[in-house]
Specification:
about 250 residues, two-stranded parallel ribbon, single chain, two-stranded antiparallel sheet, Haem-binding uptake Tiki superfamily ChaN domain-containing protein, mainly alpha, Cofac_haem-bd_dom
């Protein structure tokens, strides 16, 4: 569907229907349409990275325990690395400062009766299933991105992954996962795969400026700042406060 759209064989409305947007996604199509149109007009390839809706539904209803061995093998090939990452001190800080507060925001908005991709649930997500869904969501998107750039059609190019801010900031969403997955034995990249995170128009809430810099013990046991992102792009009229960004470890340059 995406390739046909880029080739000019589908209209905007046909793309909407072909991707089952109304069923599989909760955000307004109109917000993403200008990006799709830009890619079509400039022949920029579109790649679908989102988690399989059936897998996300399984996790939303029964947690990670609901996944079969076949599910793990297909969607989380680095199961050991996936589990090890959750024990990282920085990740635990990220969990407490980003993911868990996100759960309570979803609860306040009254949208826990939906999977993270927007499918209706019979019962609202509890904290465990919400967190499990977020982890599997990030892992599978990172895996799909790495897989694409490993393939012949993706080699030698630049891939821009557009996702929500919580998947980007403080590296433990997609960035660290992509680097880990690229380093797995048998992969074609190793250290040659370069990953950089960019936050677009972040505000004070994104940088968690009220709580100060995000810190975690380093290898030497000393507290280290977890960098907000590699780059920050902000429009002059955007609601952002530069000091809030600088405080969490983004270089002034």
């Amino acid at each position: 569907v995406l390739d046909k759209y880029i080739a000019g064989q589908l209209t905007d409305n046909e793309l909407y229907k072909g991707t089952q947007w109304e069923k599989l996604w909760s955000w307004p199509y109109e917000l993403s349409l200008p990006i799709f149109q830009y890619c079509r007009d400039n022949k920029v390839r579109l790649v679908a990275l989102n988690t399989d809706s059936e897998v996300l539904l399984k996790v939303s209803q029964g947690g990670l325990e609901a996944l079969t061995d076949q599910d793990w093998q297909r969607w989380v090939p680095d199961r050991k690395g996936f589990a090890t990452m959750t024990k990282d001190a920085g990740f635990k800080t990220y969990m407490g400062r980003v993911i868990i507060p996100s759960f309570y925001i979803h609860e306040k908005l009254g949208i826990l009766n939906y999977t993270l991709s927007g499918e209706k649930l019979d019962q609202p997500l509890n904290l465990n299933r919400f967190v499990s869904g977020r982890l599997i969501w990030d892992e599978t998107m990172a895996g799909a991105a790495v897989q694409f750039v490993e393939e012949k059609k993706g080699q030698g190019g630049l891939m821009c992954v557009l996702v929500g801010g919580d998947h980007v900031k403080y590296q433990y969403g997609l960035r660290a996962r992509m680097e880990r997955l690229a380093m797995r034995p048998g992969n074609k990249f190793g250290r040659e795969l370069q990953v950089a995170s960019v936050m677009l128009n972040p505000g004070p809430g994104d940088a968690l400026s009220r709580d100060g810099p995000m810190m975690a013990p380093g290898p030497d046991g000393q507290q280290k700042v977890i960098q907000f992102s590699d780059f920050v792009f902000a429009r002059e009229d955007a609601e952002s406060e530069a000091p809030a960004i600088v405080r969490v470890g983004v270089p002034d340059s």
